[in-house]
Amino acid sequence: MLWRIDAASDEPLYAQLVAQAHLAAARGQLAPGDRLPTARELADSLDLNVHTVLKAYQQLRDEGLIELRRGRGAVVTARAAADLSPVEQALAVLVRVAREANLSTETLTVLVKEAMSR
């Protein structure tokens, strides 16, 4: 899995890492039992503070996507792959309907963000 961050984004860096891990699991790029890079390795490769990566890993643990094991690092859980498939299906419908309504990406993004904050 290739990790990327957008330093210019309004989204916090740790949240970008969390979202990428969820998407990778949903797309089958992360399978149960796969190990994520150590926090230090990932921080070094992305030029981030190690605490930023640790915060992302802790959130992924709290959400059940990974287990943090002393000596083994972050390991993808068995339930990780199944979590987003219904969401991705609903998202495909949402995108199709938005295109039919000629909504811009920016407008759709605002609508989704507002819906998620309710």
Automatic annotation (TrEMBL):
<keyword id="KW-0804">Transcription</keyword>
<feature type="domain" description="HTH gntR-type">
    <location>
        <begin position="11"/>
        <end position="79"/>
    </location>
</feature>
<dbReference type="GO" id="GO:0003700">
    <property type="term" value="F:DNA-binding transcription factor activity"/>
</dbReference>
<dbReference type="InterPro" id="IPR000524">
    <property type="entry name" value="Tscrpt_reg_HTH_GntR"/>
</dbReference>
<keyword id="KW-0805">Transcription regulation</keyword>
<protein>
    <submittedName>
        <fullName>GntR family transcriptional regulator</fullName>
    </submittedName>
</protein>
<dbReference type="Pfam" id="PF00392">
    <property type="entry name" value="GntR"/>
</dbReference>
<dbReference type="GO" id="GO:0003677">
    <property type="term" value="F:DNA binding"/>
</dbReference>
<dbReference type="InterPro" id="IPR036388">
    <property type="entry name" value="WH-like_DNA-bd_sf"/>
</dbReference>
<keyword id="KW-0238">DNA-binding</keyword>
<dbReference type="InterPro" id="IPR036390">
    <property type="entry name" value="WH_DNA-bd_sf"/>
</dbReference>
